[in-house]
Amino acid sequence: MQYTRLGNTGLVVSRSAFGCMTFGSGEGALGSVYKVDQSGATELVARALDAGVNFFNTADAYANGQSEMMLGKALGKRRQDVVIATKVGNRMSEALIDQGLSRQHIIASVQASLKRLNTDYIDVYLVHRLDPYTPIEETLETLDTIVKQGMVRYIGFSNWPTWLATKAVGLQRAHNWAQFRAAEMYYSLVGRDLEHEMVPFVQDAGIGVMIWSPLAGGFLSGKYTRENPGGNGGRLTGFDIIPFDRERGYDVVEQLRAIGTRHHASPAQVALAWLLSRPFITSILVGASKIGQLEDNLGATSLSLSADELATLDRLTEPKAIYPNWFNATIYDAPVRDALTNEARNALKRS
């Protein structure tokens, strides 16, 4: 297992984190995702721990709290050995106020999550979505409160746009509030939008990035092809929310198969190994409903792709530049850039 720090903190986490979204049962939009009972959850968590995973990710809204409860039971006495991330913001009942990022809902939700997880503190607490009806200052001040009260160690955001996250960090610094140290965001070989604005921001702000759906809902597992677009009833047949170019995606899967053949690795392992090579990524969230799936995903941490293989995947999936990024890329001063680049190379040689 590989380990790193969570952003600009001293918290050491495994680069493969276990995502517990499959824990529980239910109907609705995520009914096809909730498929693991307590016995299965306990087995999966134990296998993850044996593999060196010390980072577990869940949310209050997953199966209406079942995921948190099942994770807490599965960890048992090992809770002190691991880092738990959970989230707040999505609707938890029909009550009008039982959602969002208001002071009322955040405090009520963190208390409820602590009970479900059977723990005295949450290591990483993430706001799960935007809340356009609550002033951002109210949300940030409340997050600072629950950190100072000891209920939460670190805070972060999930699925926020860069402009809002940037504004939030500015307000946190101005008011001396607890700062965002984690971001849970979607990123994969078929969805590299994060590189446009979010990546430069998190690197500058010292925020660690946790990647959800690193296989694009399972598409990059290799089971979905032009010949078999349904993947024999895979997850995407019931939970298909990630937009991407399917035709280009099939080309990516073919390349993953070719590279995997050379390494005796699965397409999923190659896709995850590419993600682990990205310097701005702290952890990738690997979820599973079966031990075989988990073991295959965890195998990516021991897979080392060559520079040529990484470059091939980079070229094949390179996102189209957006304005003003493409414009700014053309107006750098070449002499200064080259001089500084050469100096950096010389310094590396001297060291």
Automatic annotation (TrEMBL):
Record-level Gene Ontology MF annotations: oxidoreductase activity
User: Does the record bear Oxidoreductase in its keywords?
Assistant: yes
Stored InterPro entries: AKR (IPR020471), AKR_Detox_Biosynth (IPR050523), NAD(P)_OxRdtase_dom_sf (IPR036812), NADP_OxRdtase_dom (IPR023210)
One Pfam family it belongs to: Aldo_ket_red
In this chain the NADP-dependent oxidoreductase domain maps to: 18-316
Q: Cellular component GO terms, alphabetically? A: cytosol
Keyword field: Oxidoreductase
Official protein name in the record: Oxidoreductase
UniProt organism field: Reticulibacter mediterranei
